[in-house]
Amino acid sequence: MLRRPKPTDSEADLLREQEQFLTSGAPSAANVIRRPDKRRGEAGGGGGGEHNGENEGSQRDVVTIEDPPDQLPSLTPAPPKKSRFKASRVTFEDEDAEESLDRHDTHISAVLSRIVERDTSSTPISLPAFTGMAFPKVIHRSETSSQVPLSSARGKKSIFACQIAAQRLKEGRTPLHCAPETALRHEPRRQNLHPETSMDTDQCDAAESPIVSGSRLVSGQGLRAKDSSGETRRIHRENQAKLQAMSQSEILEEQKKLLSQLDPRLVEFVRSCKAQSVPSSASPSTHPEGKSSKDIFPLENVSREPDSSSAAVLFQKPQEVEMEGEEEEEPPPPPAMTEDDLLVKPQKEWVHMHKLEPEKLEWMRDLPAPRRKGTKKAMQARFDFAGSLIPPTEDLPTHLGLHHHGEEPERAGYSLQELFLLSRSQVIQQRSLALSTLANILSKTHAGEYLSVLKGSVKSIMLDAGLLFLLRFALDDGVEGVMSAAVHALKALLVCAEDEECLDCTFSWFHGLACFPLLPFAQEEEDEEDETLDDSMKETAKEKEERKSDHDVARRDVLKGLLKMKLLPRLRYILEVFRPSPRVVQDVLDILTRIARHSSSSATQVLDCPRLMETVVSEFLPTSWTAPSLPPPQSVYGLPLASAMKLLRVLATSGRHACARLLNSLGVRERLSCLLSAEPGELLLEPSEALRITTEAYRLWTVAAGYGQACKLYIDLYPALVKALQSVHQVLDPSDPLLPLQLQRVLALLSSLTQVTHTAGCHQELQAGMVSSRGEECPPPPPVSWGHVTGLQASLLGHLKGFVKSLDNPVQKDSSLALIPAYLVYLEAYYHQLSRQNCFKPVETLQELEQLTSEVLLPLFSHPVVQGLIKNLRSSSVVCNVQSSHQGPETTPSLPGLGYPGWRDRPGLVVPSSPLPLLTGLGLLLQTITGIHKGLSCKFTGLLLSEPVIDYLRSCSQAAPTLSPTRAWLLRHEHHLLYLLLRLAHRLVPTESEVAKHAPLYHQVALVLLPWLLPGSEYLAHELLSTIIFSKDFISEGHSGGPEAVELGELKLHEGKRHHTSPSLQTVGSLLREACVQLPSIRGCFLTHLAHLESSVLVSQDALLGRNPWISSHLLPELTGPTLPSDWPFLPLVSLYEQTGVSHGGGLAVEELPQGALQVVTHCLQWLLLLEVWREEALKVIPPVAKFARLSCVFLCSSDLFLERPVQKLTWGLFRLLTRGSRVDSLDLNLPPPGLASFQDLYSALLAQYEAVSFGDRLFGCWVLLPLLRRYSATMRLAVFGEHVGMLRSLGVTLEQLSIPIEQFTSPPEDSLPLLRLYFRSLVTGTLKLCWCPVLYVVALSHVNSFMFSQDASVQEVEAARHSMLRKIYYLTDEVLRNHLLLFRFPQQHSEFGFDVYEQLPPIRAKRLESVLGLQESSDDKGD
């Protein structure tokens, strides 16, 4: 076979291929006929080809190509092609993609056809005029413009074209594609047509519609006749005569018919030709709806490319404007400018200024007023330089600088696309202005100002359009102004100031110095190709990250992308070399702080960047400095900055090694000593800046002391600390404008003392461990011991008493409420560590605690201010207010934040009216002192019995909070409060009868709290499981007649029933009694199965109990989800299935299972039964289909485990509970269970296991019958009657044992014809019998009977199946089955056979049977 030439072939290859083609004798694909050139005098018969005839000269040249095939060619796969014009194509939100595809995707025959050359024999040829000049005359534009009328010369034409047009006018001929103005005449009928119904898109004057004397489309060229122009005029006159004779309605009807028949592209071509030939006096073209195609873009058409030229387009939500009509009409075009309109009149001496050019003067006109459109389509968003959104109907003055010559020049403001373009301009001012505007837009986006007026996420659109790369390029700009604007825009993108304020406010709370890393919540999926590789061959996470492009990394994680783009060295260069203004320095430090919050690895990269941290510490945290001469310093180099200290604090939070590097290698210890040893007024700084930097210094010291580091500072700074504590009441002057800063400084000081106290409390344990370790690795004891910190307790307790008394003073109330929680947290740390010391004196301590309770805690709790705060508990809760919470800002998955703007203006946990910090501090102290002095517990029963707390706990027990990075940081603090309330209830329930009445509520709250707990709270989960979850005191139903009540209820429910051959719910009472006895063993079972969390529990225990020297990082684990899954009660059962059922296919006997497996399954089922009966609300978070799927593990993990008597009883009880009343209605098996791809796969495994090991067990039979309800998918019924039809022999479950109404299997009638045929086949072949499988026998009988005698009209195939079944049934030899099929009436659960039958065939069925048999007999007679 001959191959086609390729572009890579050489000339020798082409010659060789040509020779092969000629020798093969294959016919050519096309025959080219060369027509003789008459101008050269060639003969008519000369050298054309073998098809050249005598009359070839008088015929047109024809290129013959084979006809296109009748069938469409096969589509071969090809690589996708990217269109350069797709991004600029205009689409609308309501445009139908399918309709557009049908309109553009046509058959190949629409393109390939016979190619016919145009006949130019009759075209007149005009030769140039002969002159006596040696060279042609030079033609000037002035001459051509004077010769050619404006109507024909308008447009972009060359000088030569203008000259030809002028010559044609002189000769009296019409220029090509142009009609002379003298030929225009009016056509009255056209004036009455609506512009939307006219085929042309041009609008003429309002007074009249000019119609040319000849056709604008047909010119006559190519016709063989000599008088081609006369022929076209004759055709045109005939068309006009026909139009004159038709009415307007007829014209419209014909027009619609034409538009429906013609190809839309052809119609567009006709309109374009019409538009080109319109005289210049006609009005400009207008879209049918009066809109420009550039006015409206859908949000989905946003470009995703990072190129600045294709930046994102943002759209305002539809705005309706009241108007008289549906839409404002297009204003008439303004008249052309004249010399009188010019501000400066041209002089004769000015060269080339004697003639006006109106086209070039159009830009000098005043802008038209904004069109007030009443449109429902989104409009492009435009912003001013401050980032504010400009309404599309607002008419702003031009001196504001918001108008430009881009799209929609009449509208003020800049779109995102235009700002992206300006940011890459060559003009420095334009680059700076665009970047500053983008920064303002991002700042307002963080504040949530665009949520109600813009569609989509502003930040996501800008990131998708390449904002990150744009800013990174701008950072490399050599102009300091542009670089500064880029830094500010990057800070606006990454940093939310209100988020940082929230974190600073919660720093002094219990465990407030710990925080989650701000990583993207959605995790990256593993590569599919790595799943099949060996572990040694798989790439590490670091190798995968390095292999990805910057765009891919930034798309998933913005900060990782910036680090990959070498952001840190550039920021170091800006600080070290550029030495920018104070604002830029502040922005750079904020950006570095946000990077450090991202993760511990990002914080390590900041520390490892060469000379970065050295520059920050040496320039912005000097050990000595001079006071600035001006209040706002021109440069902050050489002055200490609070933001630099905060950066160090966030870096230290990432880990104890990072903190040690800062303290020792960078000399931060000396700087802390320098800043904390002096009063804020002695630091030679502005008062506000001095307070901020000392506050941040205390916070950094708090973090370091949280690792057991920098505690020697306590000894060195003891005099200064005592002095600061003595002056607390003096600095908290209510009239001081710096009071908020003073409060933050005092809170930071108390947090530092709390951590130092915890560290000192560990000194004795570390000292003893160092002696007993005998050379093994052990943390060294800290330099501060318990004796160093005991002296501060009395002073701080005195402060607390004073602040409690200050609650009566309205002026000092707010300050006191802000400080009291920190004092309570300090006292908790003191007494918690005191009880572990050798010097602990129980008697003195008990007296001291009684005095503390009576003098401080009880007055504090009973104070009206505190009681008023407690009433706000439910309204400020994050757990209870999931739906009614304030609409947060837009969130970007690749750039998570706290999402808490405007937190001061709405209820929440952080505002001053929130009781969370006070109740948490009080709960912590009560937990500690009641552990030391158990008699104090009864004095605080009022806290648990107060109406606001009970109402709050009830709301929590019914809540379902969602987990996200924007809520997790607050949920963690509320979880602490709930845990502390439950711990107090744990002490009071056994002793206080009033509190014990609410024990089920406390138990319910504990059950719902357990799967809410987040990473870092594993110790709380362990404590709940060990104390409350399995406590008999909290399951009060077990010892207050609960099992008996269940039995009585079931007796009343079943008193009217006669047959109970299977275990019924009457046995549940005894099962519940046994479960209550086994609660300690059940607790041990679950704690054993959660042993894999032991390391996390220990880490969490160290952090929550203040074991500072053992803490490795204050950065909490990554937020991937709750600590425990929501279906944790099924965990032992699922673990056993994964251990044995998956690997061994469920074939192991009970004796072959791991030791204690039977006891584990029994305890798990006992716990599930107890929860289903008494704590149903706690299991509502688990879908019923998930419960059914996980309980199926009882049958799948072993071959005979389900036959064990305790397992069988418990599983029977759970099955009865799952299939009672409304519970079976809520069981939707069509949904995939969580953790499984589909329920059908699980059911197939159940059927195979039933066939293999069931031995006709009734429990297993009920389990596989439940998915066969009529409302579930027919796939499962097809599996039983198709692939596993053999199991019908042993599926002997009776209707009474099933306990599900048989009507749920038989109603509505089956409509699957394959399934009906399987039903019929299993009945007539004897596979399905009443004695073998009573339930499915009734089901199959009911559906087949309903199908055969149905009166509904159906397709021919269904009718044929009905007739066939009836004929086969009539001739059945089994009389019993035939009577059952023909006389079946309806299912009846308690009858002998499970259904009722007619005594004789009803008339309508008899008639149907006779008609079917009669048809058969007639067909048999015809056959004979």
Give a description of the structure.
With 1424 residues, this protein is an all-alpha fold. It contains 65 helices and 8 strands. The strands form 4 sheets. Strands 1-2 form a two-stranded antiparallel sheet. Strands 3-4 form a two-stranded antiparallel ribbon. Helix 61 runs parallel beside helix 63. The longest helix has 24 residues. The radius of gyration is 44 Å and the shape is flat. About 8% of the residues have low confidence.
Mean pLDDT: 81
- Cα(first) to Cα(last) distance is 60 Å
Estimate what percentage of residues fall within beta strands: under 5%
Task: Work out the helix count.
Answer: 65
Sheet with the most strands, sense and barrel status: 2 strands, antiparallel
* Structural class by secondary-structure content: mainly alpha
- Unreliable segments of 5+ consecutive residues: 44-59, 150-154, 174-212, 278-311, 319-329, 524-529, 1056-1065
Gyration radius, to the nearest Å?
A: 44 Å
Which shape, going by the Cα principal axes?
flat
Major sheet: order of its strands?
1-2
Number of strands: 8
Measured as a percent range, the helix fraction is: 40-55%
Summarize this structure as a short list of keywords or feature phrases.
two-stranded antiparallel ribbon; 1424 residues; 8 strands; 1% strand
